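Subgroup meeting minutes
Present: P.N., E.W., G.H.
Scribe: E.W.

1. P.N. recapped why we're keeping a running log of single-chain structure predictions: easier to compare across weeks, and new members can see raw inputs and outputs side by side.
2. G.H. added today's entry (313 aa).
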Amino acid sequence: MNKITLQNVHNRIKSYIHRTPVLTSQLIDNLCDANVFFKCENFQKMGAFKMRGATNAILNLTDTQKSKGVVTHSSGNFAQALSLAAKQIGVKAFIVMPKNAPQVKKDAVKTYEGIIIECESNIKAREKEAHKIVIKKGAMFIHPSNDDDVIYGQGTAAIELLEDYPDLDYIFTPVGGGGLLAGTLLAAKYFSKNCKVIAGEPKEADDAYRSLLSGNIEKNETSNTIADGLRTHLGDRNFPIIKKYVEKIIRVEEDEIIHAMKLIWERMKIIIEPSSAVAFAAVLKEKEALKNKNIGVIISGGNVDLSNLPFNK
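Output recorded in log:
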């Protein structure tokens, strides 16, 4: 991996994605005593950064591979991202989703013409169904976060942020499966002067934090967090990048996530999902150490169930 490779990825996917805006707020700057720049992937096609990695992964397939389609297992944003990216490129997408996945997410996948295969709600069942499709249809399996092409695609959000604001001291991202964090780390390495990357993670699903401590990929026995997009664990493709380059991972409590989410909704008038709020919650928690710094925050997505908002409870 080098700067030219990452630049080529960005050039390859440009026409399929939005170059999302970077928003600021004087009130939030004053609150943090720093300059905060929000890279708004909630305005990305299908509402999340995952459109970037899904598009890059499909575009990198051969024509023969494309003709047989792609498959993934996901109950959330990557299910939608792969479906829409495949539709734009003219490829069939098979999406393995748990039976109990929210209907709103299933409906979104159908809107993007993804072909849903339902399974039981556990990782073994998901993997088994996806493997069946690989064997039966010859479709290419694309992992939501533990795939090099997906990682490089996700890094393009940070490339754009650094092109717009090259003097950032830090970029904060959430960490779940690790694709966005790993991609952001590579972007910071090759496209910044000395920008450090910090991840926010729910304390209720702190496998990445514990993985850094142990040096091995740890898993969560429970994941009782409202940040549903961050309940997944790291993989063998992204963890080495994270272990090598991340500055640190900051764990945040559930009430801190809700507070950060509410603050952005109220003050910036934009919709973000709980997983996105985790990165900003980490900024708020760390603000004493960030005084007068230039801070980028990647708002990872804005796909929320409006009937189930955490600050209405």
